[in-house]
Amino acid sequence: MKSNIGHTQAASGVAGVIKMVLAMRHEQLPRTLHVDEPTPHVDWSTGAVQLLTEEQRWPRHQDRPRRAGVSSFGVSGTNAHVILEEAPAAGTSDAEPAEPAEPVVSWPLSARSERALRAQAGQLADHLRTHPDTDLHATAHTLRTGRAGHDHRAVAIGTDRDELLTSLTALATGQASPGVVTGTALGDNRTVFVFPGQGPNGPAWAANSWTPHRSSPSPSPTAKQH
Predict the structure, then answer these.
(1) Are 161 and 116 in contact (CB under 8 A)?
(2) For residue 99, what pLDDT is reported?
(3) Which residues form the domain of 70?
(4) pTM higher than 0.70 for the full model?
(5) Which CATH number does the domain housing residue 161 bear?
(6) 183 phi and psi, to 5 degrees?
């Protein structure tokens, strides 16, 4: 990718995906620019890897899909590798189109204790039984935005009123259910922003690190530059 359009930095992975999707669409692999011949330091005779010094046709196959690997190298050598596979040709499947899936509704609950959490689930279950016309999505929004967040938490999941009622009843009675997720909030989680730098900057920045409730020493010239 760098050879074709330049150094894309953080967008290298996205640009690589776009490049290979276009290559599949046009059935052609673009050549690598600014390279006259492969490096002699690699044994190109082993395996089936070759450098694209010229454009190459990449037509569809009847018996197998085309695939491409895209690597993105990020900060500090972080590497993400994705395998792309072309979609089946339109009209090749005899299967009936699948019915659209029902949207999943999640009702988040939180309380100061496990007992209170179960009681809250029971109250919501009773409300659903006595008010069958309850707007499930509006209630989910209110539970997410209009209630305080406490340590003991749970989520009741369902695609309709009956499934939500089953999940709430299981939570209220302490029974395991695939429609219930429970957990406990962690302790004091304060956000920390870390700018560790790379390479030779590391020792200078580490020497000028700081902690709360302590005066920070003056940064070194290297740190000031960045």
Answers:
(1) no
(2) 66
(3) 2-85
(4) no
(5) 3.30.70.3290
(6) -175, 175
